[in-house]
Amino acid sequence: MYNSELQGETFLKRCRLIYKTTKNLNLKLNKMKTLKSLFASAFLAIALCSASFAADGKLPAIKKIIVKGNAIVQIIQKDQENVKIYEAYDPEKSTVVMKGNSLIINSNEVKPITVLVYAKDLFRIDASDNAIVQVKGQLNVPYLQVMLHDQAKANINAVTKGLYTVTDDKSRLKLKGISNEHISLRSSFSKLKTDDFACMRTSTSKIENAVAETKKNDTADYKLAMKQ
Fold first, then answer.
1. How far are the Cα atoms of 54, 76, 88, 119, 167 from residue 122, in angstroms, in the given order?
2. Of 43, 113, 168, 196, which residue is most buried, by most CB within 10 angstroms?
3. Rounded to the nearest 5°, which phi and psi values hold at 128?
4. What pLDDT, on a 0 to 100 scale, did the predictor assign at position 99?
5. What is the model's pLDDT at position 181?
């Protein structure tokens, strides 16, 4: 009986020790994750601070967003420009920098990083590789350009006077909102969904035809130049 009780107490002590060790290990892991997240956030701040700021220390107006690689960009229209990243990321694989009025996002992470962008008067969105662009709420801007390449995807909800979209390669674009005019240039393999989009005037051209027409015009210009 004594041996059984002794063994039981020893077992409980070991269990308590394992629990305590595991708890401490989890705390250390959480601290490491927090430090990694803080480091990533600090790197983002440094990257953005390396750009030219306005006199009041605020970010310059974000007119263009260029995103490449494995990233998800969520756009919210707001008077105050801002950029946030919620997940920890590797600064050697991902960069977020401001150059003039362009926000450039590039990520080679295995899992996509999510970047939240607050912009007041966005004019152009350019996405390539596996990038995903999402408008949260609705953009109300005079004119908007959306350029998609490779396997990029975008969900755009906007009210504009003029909308110009390019869907190249196997990219996918879903439009929602209203525009007075929509000029669309798309490839044969891309997808454009406009079920929830209303427009007064729409003109669509195939990229292949546009390229062929450009080459035709270039050839004609060359022959004309040779004759002169």
1. 17, 10, 26, 6, 19
2. 113
3. -145, 180
4. 93
5. 97
The answer to whether 65 and 117 have CB atoms below 8 angstroms apart is yes
Tokens encoding 16:
């308590």
- Transcribe 14-55 into DSSP letters: HHHHHHHHHHHHHHHHHHHHHHHHHHHHHHHHHHHHTSPPPT
Here the tokens at position 82 are 């801002």
Give, in order, the Cα–Cα distances in Å from 99 to each of 47, 51, 63. 10, 6, 11
3-class DSSP state of 112: coil
Calculate the alpha carbon distances from 151 to 95, 117, 193, 203, 206 in Å.
20, 21, 15, 23, 17
- Contact of 51 with 98, CB cutoff 8 Å: yes
Indicate the Cα dihedral angle 128, 130, 136, 138, nearest 10°. 40
**pLDDT at position 57:** 56
> Does an H or E element contain 74, and which?
strand 71-77
* Cα–Cα distance, 44 to 54 (Å, whole number): 18
Q: What pLDDT score was predicted for residue 153?
A: 98
Structure tokens at 134: 């999402």
Helix-strand-coil split of the chain, %, nearest 5:
30, 45, 25
pTM of the model: 0.72
Instruction: Give me 149's structure tokens.
Output: 């390449």
List average pLDDT for each run of 10 residues in the chain, which is 228 residues long.
45 46 44 43 46 59 96 96 86 91 94 95 97 98 97 98 96 98 94 96 82 44 45
Where do the domains of the chain lie, and which CATH numbers do they carry?
A: 47-210 (2.160.20.120)
